């Protein structure tokens, strides 16, 4: 078997355990020699127990490399291994790099720099709005945005890039052909066209809890810096921040509400020295990209507003407010505020959240 086929075989056999695979390759001299090893050699050289070696041999016999290569081609998925052209240069020298990656789409284009945006799955409207805007602004500046396709902040970041017509990379904790989260199916397809879906897990691998901390090192490894938007004290996003520091990447964080438990982790990062982020310009400046890339605000067509709509619009921000609060602050009758909100929503300037809460959409 050729080296590429052996890399693929090992990635199918022991996915998500790159440290173990690199140790095995080192012991045997190469992935090819490791693949050809016998049960006795796996025990004597590879450090396996007799039962572990026996199980590995049985599973190895069940792998059909040719069939897998045909399936990859059918599904439009590329497999690249460490050291091969097409393997992301940013991952080459990180600690514990994935021996192989499954890629649907194109990770980078013309060496464009990348920034990761990650955060809480159970994000607030503030966090979602900020993540979407930061990602969109970075995309308009020509930056590739990397995230993890999880619900909450990750999804908002991907959507922000797609809305801006930019490039985004989603690093998954499952196979690139597995629809997870299911509600992100449309987003996944759009990312595969304009960016890439990436995973070290083989096709048809369903997500497991331990997959996500493992994939976080790839998110940070692909990026020049990691931006944390809303993270609780035990958030998985903080694991990504730790990986970023170990890999020599910059860590940045968006300041959050001091009374919100979802901001305790991100606010703590700032106290520990992470760069505070108010806008995309802060990110570019911290990464030394501000002279090469400039944030371009999206062109907003002028929309004619009635006097009541103008009053209500000026009272809205990314912090959700109720109808009663708007009535009290505006001094307008409740009916006129409702009418103004309806027309502002139709004009794309206001977004209504569950619970009849309102935020600005621009």
Question: Can you describe this structure in just a few lines?
Answer:
The protein has 362 residues and is an alpha/beta fold. It is 45% helix and 14% strand.
What does this structure look like?
Helices cover 45% and strands 14% of the residues. Strand 4, helix 9 (153-163) and strand 5 (168-171) form a beta-alpha-beta unit. Helix 9 (153-163) crosses helix 10 (185-194) and helix 11 (211-221) crosses helix 12. The chain has 362 residues and is α/β, with parallel strands linked by helices. The strands form two sheets. A nine-stranded mixed beta sheet has the order 1-2-6-5-4-3-7-8-9, sandwiched between helices. The protein has a three-stranded antiparallel beta sheet with strand order 10-12-11. The protein folds into three domains: 1-74; 114-286, Rossmann fold (3-Layer(aba) Sandwich); 307-360, Arc Repressor Mutant, subunit A.
Order of helices and strands: HHHHHHEHEEHEHEHEHEHEHEHHEHHEE
Number of DSSP helical runs? 17
Can you count the beta strands?
A: 12
CATH class division of the largest domain: Alpha Beta
* SS content category: alpha/beta
Indicate the overall shape. elongated
Q: Would you identify the regions where 5 or more consecutive residues have pLDDT less than 50?
A: none
**How many distinct domains?**
3
- CATH architecture annotation name of the largest domain: 3-Layer(aba) Sandwich
Proportion of residues in β-strands: 5-15%
Radius of gyration in whole Å, from Cα?
24 Å
Main sheet attributes: strand count, strand direction, barrel closure: 9 strands, mixed
- State mean pLDDT (0 to 100 scale): 92
Helix content: 40-55%
Please give the alpha-carbon distance between the first and last residues: 56 Å
* CATH topology (fold) name of the largest domain: Rossmann fold
Instruction: Identify the strand order in the major beta sheet.
Output: 1-2-6-5-4-3-7-8-9
